[in-house]
Design goal:
Elements (H helix, E strand, L loop, with lengths): L10 E2 L2 E2 L1 E3 L2 E3 L6 E5 L6 E6 L3 H18 L4 H17 L1 H12 L3 H26 L3 E3 L11 E9 L2 E5 L7 H12 L3 E4 L6 H14 L6 E3 L4 H9 L6 E5 L3 H8 L5 E4 L5 E4 L5 H13 L11 E5 H15 L19 H16 L3 E2 L5 E2 L2 E2 L2 E4 L16 E7 L2 H9 L12 E2 L4 H7 L1 E9 L9
Parallel strand pairs: 9-10, 9-12, 10-11, 12-13, 14-15, 15-20, 19-20
Antiparallel strand pairs: 1-2, 3-4, 5-6, 7-8, 8-22, 13-21, 16-19, 17-18
Helix pairs in contact: 2-4, 2-6, 3-4, 3-6, 4-5, 4-13, 5-13, 9-10
């Protein structure tokens, strides 16, 4: 399924090609990577298994294309990004269909992701023109100990080749949030999509191809992590890495060269509920925050720390809302859909069983069929349970009862995770302006002036 005729050229037989030097290519490996549909647990798509030699060629062409792109005026870069955004939105249906099949994202959420991605690309084009269109002019008096003989101009210039590695849960949105800042800044981009989500990412890259970006500027390589993962992240031709995902990011940051890194990793996002809270509002937001896309979001609510005096009432309100969540395949727009892989489901089950063994209160019966896990609220969770600290990335929410706000804050601060960009949650923030700043370096030009004459005549 190539989605539509527009995408016909990106598939060869039943294997999706990788993208390099402005065209869609088959890998010389003759191998492919299967993509398992989380709902059927059967192979749904196949993508090329690229070789290290192919990665070398991709990075070589990325370096060549970047040199010319860096000379392209900002308004022209922005124009192409706006064009890509429009094409992306135009093809939201076939791309969303891939998200439904690859990552079991409910159809309405899948369409929203693609539209949001288009909006993000357009916003980045505008913001980039503003951020990068300004330099700084320093007058002579900013040079201490010197005569008034210097002017200084500073501007932002690109780093070179940016490697972007998005996660399975937002393979389009979190890819463009790296691609757009890199391109507007004058960099070239090499995208290594997640296996689950690779086909949606290839469709998205094709929208950039159709927009008419120069050859070699954007590449998308698919393949086995064991074959090309470390090879890419440790490649001497890569000048910057932007990564979103889990523990792999910590390994990347240890192995990568001395280059700028942007790491958006795991989290244990906490919600602290005090006695004076509006409990109906709290319950609605905890259910939305904890269970939308089956909890597979880095910004999901992953632990509720609730004051003992209101815990019984709140847990009942949350339970009433959880009971109304629909469970089933993503094609039917259910609230809770299968988690992405069997290993994810097994990990979630391990956390649930540990909580059961240690005496947590199960507000629903634990139920699982294949990768589909029914939503579960766990009350009376204690700090000796793994679920109190670990990130399930699934539809399971622990409630920890507390007796003071200090106790709640202490629990949050004791976590290995911080908010975005802190502790084990990563390095730096992935907002558009921050990304542009991270993907550029400051170039300083000092102009020496003639020595002034001090005669008073």
């Amino acid at each position: 399924m190539a989605g539509s005729d527009t995408f016909a050229e990106i598939i060869d037989g039943d294997v999706f090609n990788y993208y390099s030097n402005g065209q869609w290519n088959k890998s010389s490996s003759g191998k492919y990577v299967p993509i398992i549909n989380p709902t059927t647990r059967k192979t749904h798509f196949k993508v090329q298994a690229c070789t290290q030699e192919e990665v070398n060629k991709v990075i070589e062409s990325a370096k060549t294309a970047q040199k010319l792109w860096a000379k392209t005026p900002l308004w022209k870069r922005a124009e192409l990004l706006h064009k890509a955004a429009a094409i992306l939105k135009e093809h939201k249906a076939p791309i969303a269909e891939c998200l439904v099949k690859e990552i079991a994202k409910p159809r309405k959420d899948a369409v929203t992701e693609v539209v949001r991605s288009g909006d993000l690309v357009s916003y980045c084009a505008e913001e980039g023109v503003r951020v990068l269109g300004e330099g700084k002019f320093l007058v002579s008096d900013s040079f201490p100990g010197n005569d008034r003989t210097k002017y200084c101009l500073t501007s932002k210039i690109p780093l070179g080749v940016v490697l972007a590695i998005p996660p399975f849960n937002y393979p389009v949105n979190l890819a463009v949030s790296k691609i757009a800042p890199a391109l507007i800044s004058g960099n070239s981009i090499v995208l290594k999509p997640p296996t689950q989500g690779a086909v949606a990412a290839l469709h998205m890259v094709h929208c950039f191809h159709l927009a008419g970006f120069p050859k070699g500027l954007i590449s998308c390589v698919t393949g086995k992590g064991s074959e090309i993962g470390d090879f890419l992240t440790m490649h001497p031709g890569v000048n910057c890495i932007s990564f979103t995902g889990g523990d792999t990011g910590i390994a990347i940051s240890k192995k990568s060269a001395m280059i700028p890194l942007q790491m958006e990793l795991g989290g244990k996002d906490a919600c602290i509920v005090l006695e004076d809270a509006d409990l109906d509002l709290v319950a609605a937001n905890i259910v939305k925050g904890g269970f939308s896309y089956s909890g597979q979001r880095c910004t999901a609510v992953k632990v509720a720390l609730v004051m003992e005096s209101v815990a019984d009432i709140l847990v009942k309100k949350i339970n009433d809302k959880v009971a109304k969540l629909t469970v089933g395949p993503p094609e039917d727009d259910n609230d809770i859909t299968p988690v992405v892989t069997e290993s994810s489901a097994n990990y979630i089950e391990g956390l649930v069983m540990d909580a059961k063994k240690k005496g947590a209160t199960f507000c629903q019966e634990y139920r699982r069929e294949g990768n589909l896990i029914w939503p579960l609220l766990l009350d009376n969770v204690r700090p000796d349970m793994r679920i109190a600290w670990e990130e399930p990335f699934g539809p399971v929410l622990p409630v920890i009862r507390i007796n003071s706000v200090e106790e709640g804050i202490h629990h949050c601060n004791a976590s290995n995770f911080g908010l975005q960009g802190l502790k084990d949650s990563g390095i730096g923030s992935q907002g558009i302006t921050n990304s542009i700043n991270m993907m550029t370096k400051i170039k300083t030009t000092v102009i020496n002036l003639p020595t002034p004459s001090y005669s008073m005549g």
